[in-house]
Design a protein that fits this description.
Length: 331
Amino acid sequence: MSLLQIRNLCTTFYTPGGLVRAVDGVSLDLVMGKTTGLIGETGCGKSVLGHSILRLLPANARIEGSIRFKGEELLCLPETKLRRLRGREMAFIPQSPATSLNPVLTIGRQLVETIRLHKRVSRQKAREAAAALLELLDLPAPEKRLAEYPHQLSGGMRQRVLAAMGVVGNPSLLIADEPTKGLDAIVRRQMAAVLRRLTAKTGAALLLITHDLRVVAGLCDDVAVMYAGEIIESGPARVVLTDPRHPYTRGLLGSLPAHGLKPIPGVSPSLIDLPAGCRFFHRCPDASPACGEVWPSLVKQPDRQVRCLLFAQGRESGKGVYGRDLQAAVV
């Protein structure tokens, strides 16, 4: 049974320029002990989806659809009850440790306060728990790190501190938003190993929001590909990443250095003025005239779902196998 069930989720923003449809009709299931990767270009709606689950959105946002966590509808919960779920049952690891950590407080004080917020323990016990968490996450000399300020730590160390703060309440659901962004290859692998260790220890479901396909290939059980607010392909990570079916997914993989560094031509459509047909139509190498007129629905296949008219019509786009070099590049 799914821990989290998202059905027909729509998140829109009212702006002076018009209505921004950042997340448009997304359905997704997250299962305990499983890691799901959410990938796509910048601006496709990945982070907005993560924030929508926790209802951490500005006042000009509107969420419609259904988000059920352990059978309970989150969109109907009062803010007081939802606040109790955040951190304890559902945790969020933001993508920017530079702005998420308080620069004038030590790492120890921030971790201790977070632990005591969720558990009734003394400051000494909380400090011991904080040091144990940092040791679990492979931070060298954890006692020393507790006495340091955020600016004294490297980017990878700060990201691991955020991960520690996210799991102090032993959450069932962990949402990590671009946890490897801005990190070099070695630190990126270390951070991926940290996330793997956390999910193994807690048994939590992890939603990994990222543009890093190598980390997804090495860490995720399932993957969902977003484009212009929609999920356009989803399924087991190994299946989707080694044998992509949607032209956009193939384009993402083709843009990797190992696959020739071929960028996808064109730009994503405006989320204020979306086209009537397929949203990838103007960039798609396999598009037919019908693709510009007919909006494609998700087509269920034995091993995945694909939002493409070629599959709705019983035809397949060209496909390539990317498996060996992609898998070899990850953790």
